[in-house]
From TrEMBL:
Residues 10-177 form the N-acetyltransferase domain. GO terms for molecular function: acyltransferase activity, transferring groups other than amino-acyl groups. This is N-acetyltransferase domain-containing protein. InterPro entries: Acyl_CoA_acyltransferase, GNAT_dom. Gene3D superfamilies: 3.40.630.30. It comes from the Bacteria. CDD domains: NAT_SF.
């Protein structure tokens, strides 16, 4: 199925943690579609736990792109906990700025990839943030995804494997607002 509109024509809606009951299944379904070839991986199968973990935070922010009434992608995250900025261990010296938004997840269904949807979702999620910095993790097995984030102003500052069954991730950091 070919998309009906361009990324610019998508309806991007904003949500908070109070909306989680309404959007939870949408996030799970889009994630399953976006990672259909990788859903046999136990780490990817735990995605509903991550949705609940991040979505349960009071500062949770989510954007979902719709083509008509069909969700085609999403991005979400939440402010980091002050004093628990785990990414600082990768920098010496660490930036003086400290308020950090943790960009947890981005997923776009295959029919909508390479059309600017990821950037549109990322910029919509980051607009009007009052944090100084944004941090995210990118699977090191996906260098093109890392390069995409770099084109938006992120830089790799280290590597991390936060769970025993997770991939090794590139730790990426950017100043807000994004350039």
């Amino acid at each position: 199925m070919e998309p009906r509109v361009t990324a610019a024509g998508l309806n991007v809606r904003h949500f908070t943690h109070t909306d989680l009951p309404e959007i939870r299944q949408t996030l799970i379904d889009v994630h399953a579609d976006a990672l259909a070839d990788e859903m046999d991986d136990p780490f990817n199968q735990r995605f509903p736990w991550f949705v609940d973990h991040w979505g349960g935070r009071p500062g949770f922010a989510c954007v979902i792109a719709y083509d008509g009434d069909k969700a085609v992608g999403f991005a979400y995250g939440a402010p980091g906990s002050p004093g628990h900025e785990w990414w600082r261990e990768h920098l010496d010296p660490a930036p003086e700025k400290h308020r950090t938004f943790s960009y947890s997840e981005l997923a776009v269904i295959p029919a909508w990839r390479k059309q600017g949807v990821s950037e549109r979702l990322t910029r919509a999620l980051m607009e009007d943030r009052d944090e100084d910095l944004v941090v995210l993790l990118v699977d090191t097995e996906h260098p093109r995804v890392q390069a995409l984030y770099e084109s938006w102003g992120f830089r790799k500052v280290g590597k991390d494997q936060p769970f025993p069954d997770s991939p090794v991730f590139a730790v990426m950091l950017a100043e807000l607002p994004l350039s």
